[in-house]
Each structure stands twice: as C-alpha cells, then as structure tokens.
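Milestone 3.1: sequence recovery, worked example.
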C-alpha cells in the first residue's frame, strides 16, 4: 500500500492585507489542526496516523511558531498601551505553550516515522490542545477586538509588511 500523505493547506498571502482577518483565519485553521492532534492522541494507531503526525510536526515546527511570532513581535507590542495586563498575561502563557509545543513535537516524531506513540503522548498532546484552544479564545474575544479598535491603517500596514517579510 502506498504511503498516505496529509496536508492542511495554508492561507493565501492576499489575506495579509488585513492582519486581524489573517490571524482570525489562521485560528480557524489551527482549530482544525488541534482536532487532528486530539484525535491522534486518542487513537495513535492506524494507517493514516504517520501522515497526520508529519503534518502536525510541520505545523508545530514552522507555521505555528511564525504565527506566534506575528502576534508576539508585530501585534501585541502595538496593543501594550491599550491592554497592558492582557499583553503581560499572554507573554507569560507563551512560555508554557512553547514548552508544551516542543514536547508534543518531539512525541509526534516517532508516530510520524510509523512507530508507536511514546508514553505520555496523549496527556501531553491533550494538555497542549486545551491550553492552545484557550489561547485562541482569548485572542478572538479580547486581543483581536482591541486590535480592531486601536490600530489605525498605518499600524495595520506595518504589521502586514512584517508578516509578509516573515513569509518570504
């Protein structure tokens, strides 16, 4: 039987013209990937699991860090004056997310290679998914509404340029 490949396509660069819309669209995509991670945590055996694990490793290694950098380096500093406590809280959460993200990525590697999930994978993956889903909710209910309220066109253009530069 041929190897199964899994792919979750990226967003078009034209969405970067509106950084808040781009980040919100990314959140929807990330929720789908978290769903795959949760299913894999509950059922780590099967023909499609290595392909799903490979796609998740790529997301955790490249795409998610870039998304988090977009927020940490481009969006949140511009919101610090309007929501200082929120920005501090998110910066603290980033440390926990980074550690869990690395643990999940490391645990996915053997699954991606067709091996059994390591001990503790399910608990770690589900903990990461729960924490990151909470983060997405915070961003959509608090961060993005503040951003839409306080960022002017010049700031949005600057954020979009920074995000484009990261992707080139």
């Amino acid at each position: 039987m041929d190897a199964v490949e899994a792919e979750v396509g990226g967003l078009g660069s034209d969405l970067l013209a509106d950084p808040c819309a781009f980040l919100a669209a990314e959140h929807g995509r990330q929720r789908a990937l978290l769903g795959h991670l949760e299913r894999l945590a509950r059922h780590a055996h099967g023909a499609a699991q290595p392909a799903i694990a490979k796609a998740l490793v790529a997301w955790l290694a490249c795409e998610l860090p870039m998304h988090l950098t977009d927020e940490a380096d481009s969006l949140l500093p511009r919101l610090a004056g309007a929501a200082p406590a929120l920005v501090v809280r998110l910066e603290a959460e980033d440390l926990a997310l980074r550690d869990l993200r690395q643990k999940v990525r490391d645990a996915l590697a053997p699954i991606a290679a067709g091996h059994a999930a390591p001990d503790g994978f399910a608990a770690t993956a589900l903990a990461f998914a729960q924490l990151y889903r909470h983060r997405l909710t915070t961003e959509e209910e608090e961060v993005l509404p503040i951003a839409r309220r306080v960022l002017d066109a010049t700031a949005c253009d600057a954020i979009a340029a920074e995000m484009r530069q990261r992707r080139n």
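The chain has a mean pLDDT of 91. DSSP finds five helices and no strands in the chain.
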